[in-house]
Design a protein that fits this description.
This protein is an all-alpha fold. It has one domain: Globins (Globin-like). Helix content is 75%, strand content 0%. Helix 1 packs antiparallel against helix 4, helix 1 crosses helix 7 and helix 5 (86-103) crosses helix 7 (128-151). It is globular. The mean pLDDT is 94. It comes from Cinclus mexicanus. Involved in oxygen transport from the lung to the various peripheral tissues.
């Protein structure tokens, strides 16, 4: 059973919405990161190898930006596959949150920024319904990540 606040129908429509954007995981993941680095330049400070890149064009071409974009999308994809199994979902979110909190020391507000940009991109590409059906998922992800950060003393 699911301890998350998503009904079975919501899980299904969230998966349908996510599938549309995950088909082009690398390009869309890259687009999300490029937008984050451009609109929130302070987020670049966590990525030493992205620091010198100022133009969006340069970032789009970067193998490192592309690789990390794909990584972010793959992690979310794993979470989306386990929305109906909170134990498995937390099994993915928890180590990810711990790593970002303790090793990488990433400010947790950046997760919300990334999620909001993903929602924007969904709306631009596939419309408001697509965005709406994925919004609860991003809230779940951010809530769980924030809880892990609290446990780690943030």
């Amino acid at each position: 059973s699911c301890t998350m606040s998503l009904s079975e129908a919501e899980v299904q429509s969230a998966r349908g919405a996510w599938e549309k954007i995950f088909v082009d995981a690398e390009d869309n993941g890259t687009a999300v990161l490029v937008r984050m680095f451009t609109e929130h330049p302070d987020t670049k400070s966590y990525f030493t190898h992205f620091k010198g890149m100022d133009s969006a064009e340069e970032m789009k071409q970067s193998d490192q930006v592309r690789g990390h974009g794909k990584k972010v999308f793959s992690a979310i994809n794993d979470m989306v596959q386990h929305l109906d199994n909170s134990e498995a979902f937390l099994g993915i979110v928890t180590p990810l949150g711990k790593k970002h909190a303790t090793q990488l020391k990433i400010d947790p507000k950046n997760f919300r920024i990334i999620c909001d940009i993903i929602l924007q991109l969904m709306e631009e590409k596939f419309g408001g319904d697509c965005k709406a059906s994925f919004e609860k998922v991003t809230n779940e992800i951010c809530t769980h990540l924030n809880n892990i950060y609290k446990e780690e003393g943030w």
